[in-house]
Design goal:
Blueprint lengths: L24 H12 L19 E2 L2 E2 L8 H18 L1 H14 L5 E9 L6 H10 L3 E8 L4 E7 L18 E7 L6 H14 L6 H7 L9 H10 L1 H9 L5 E5 L10 H10 L12 E2 L5 E5 L4 E5 L5 E5 L2 E7 L24 H7 L5 H8 L1
Parallel strand pairs: 3-6, 7-12
Antiparallel strand pairs: 1-2, 3-7, 4-5, 5-6, 8-9, 9-12, 10-11
Helix pairs in contact: 2-3, 2-6, 7-8
């Protein structure tokens, strides 16, 4: 049985599904079939990890090209976005608020996903979809205290001008993290392995699960959720949200108004009654001072567990990122600055604090 979230996507022009997701039982049977008898995926693919700043030779950017149907790819991203917005009213309200103040040219810096690093359900399960369409795997980031690792993926060149908004604009970077399950207690490992084993070959359909807003395993019990939450809030979040889009990030420096400054945007958001993640300070700044990030506190939703218990669980949040111009390009006229002139990649210190947007401490602060 899949966990299906009803959603309304009328406001998402790029959605490939109708206004609500409501499937007859026969559809679930159809969905289950691919998961039952599937071949073992190639878990250990060979990737080239490149530097955060795109390599340049004589001003030419070395980058991958888009592969496949761009309209299909953007439609999948669009439905991931639609599911995310319908489950997270804060993100939807903020996007509408920024559009009303700045115009309809919001660009996404990155999409982020969480995974279980066990039995092939980790980073590779979600990254395959993006790699197949021309994304390139970049640096690894490690978070020892949280027992996490992550990779980010740079977008390919596209044939269109990509001057649209949201998923129809410049393709976002992708950030995928995974929980290092073998570092957890035996009890926590047992719970996670129980559900990833139920999922079986669901790991091969991670992007599909994300685009439909469904789990690839059965609903857990409330006691199992609580047990994981005591040891790893990341684990508990992933158990009930699966491959759902964890957050999207607005690229602030691509905005047209004074909100292009992340400090102004943060003030604007707070003045409109939204709580920002305060862990490590509202503004998270990389050591080089060139990557500035902030995020809201996650929304919550009611979740009916397998034992019939219904409780609020954390959903997702929205992030904001300003990438400043690299020192070697500081004298470029503003109108000539392109994205590759700016600080690329991610920062462990920033990301570590952004992860806290779904933590109990931040959710409690939101409710206060």
């Amino acid at each position: 049985m899949f966990c299906v979230y009803s959603s309304s996507s009328s406001s998402i022009k790029s959605s490939i599904f109708p206004k609500s997701i409501s499937f007859p039982s026969s559809h679930f049977n159809n969905f289950k079939n691919p998961f039952l008898n599937c071949k073992t995926p190639m878990e250990n693919q060979s990737f080239s990890v490149l530097s955060a700043s795109k390599a340049q030779n004589g001003g030419v950017i070395q980058d991958s090209s888009f592969q496949g149907s761009e309209s299909f790819f953007r439609s999948v991203l669009g439905n991931m976005e639609a599911i995310y917005l319908n489950k997270n009213p804060t993100a939807k309200a903020i996007l509408e608020l920024v559009r009303s103040a700045d115009g309809d040219q919001i660009c996404y810096d990155h999409f982020a996903f969480r995974t279980f690093g066990v039995n092939g359900h980790g980073i590779d399960s979600m990254s395959k979809f993006f790699l197949d369409f021309g994304y390139e795997r970049r640096e690894e980031l490690r978070f020892p205290a949280k027992k996490l690792k992550a990779f980010w993926f740079s977008p390919p060149k596209v044939s269109t001008s990509s001057r649209g908004s949201g998923v129809n604009g410049p393709l976002p970077r992708i950030f995928i993290s995974e929980l290092l399950v073998d570092q957890l207690s035996p009890e926590a490992q047992e719970i996670i392995k129980k559900y990833t084993n139920i999922s079986h070959c669901g790991k091969e359909y991670a992007a599909l699960a994300s685009a439909f807003g469904i789990l690839t395993w059965e609903k857990p019990s409330y006691s199992e959720f609580q047990q994981l939450a005591r040891e790893s809030e990341y684990a508990a979040w992933t158990l009930v949200n699966g491959y759902a889009l964890n957050h999207v990030t607005i690229s602030t420096h691509r905005l047209a108004s004074n909100l292009r400054s992340i400090g102004n945007l943060n003030q604007f958001i707070e003045e409109n009654g939204f709580n920002l993640n305060s862990e490590g300070g509202i503004l998270k700044v990389s050591p080089d001072g060139l990557l500035l990030q902030s995020s809201t506190v996650a929304d919550s939703t009611s979740f009916e567990f397998s034992d019939g218990t219904t409780e609020a669980v954390p959903c997702s949040y929205i992030e904001f990122a300003e990438r400043l111009v690299l020192p070697q390009y500081k004298d470029l006229p503003t109108e000539k600055v392109e994205e590759f002139h700016r600080r690329d990649g991610f920062e462990v210190g920033n990301a570590d604090k952004i992860f806290e947007s779904t933590s109990k401490d931040q959710l409690t602060r939101r409710a206060a």
